[in-house]
Amino acid sequence: MTFVCEICGKTFKSEWGLKLHDKRHRGTGRFACCGNTFYTKQAFNRHTCSIHGVEKPFPSEQCGKKLST
């Protein structure tokens, strides 16, 4: 079964995915930082760790940039 966004027509495999996508259309994210809105705690945590994290001990094997995860 697929779930279709009535606004833009994008399809999702789960109702949860569609509900999350709908929040983006409505601008109702729960977590805000740096002028961005994040719709899940996981996305917010990923942002704060990668952008605001102090320690970045993991260098990229491709470019050498240091990352926090």
From TrEMBL:
Its main location: nucleus. It comes from the Eukaryota. The keyword Cytoplasm does not apply. The keyword Endoplasmic reticulum does not apply. It is found in: Nucleus. Gene3D superfamilies: Classic Zinc Finger. Residues 3-30 form the C2H2-type domain. It holds the Pfam family zf-C2H2_4. Signal peptide: none annotated. This is C2H2-type domain-containing protein. It comes from Dreissena polymorpha (Zebra mussel). The lineage of its organism: Eukaryota, Metazoa, Spiralia, Lophotrochozoa, Mollusca.
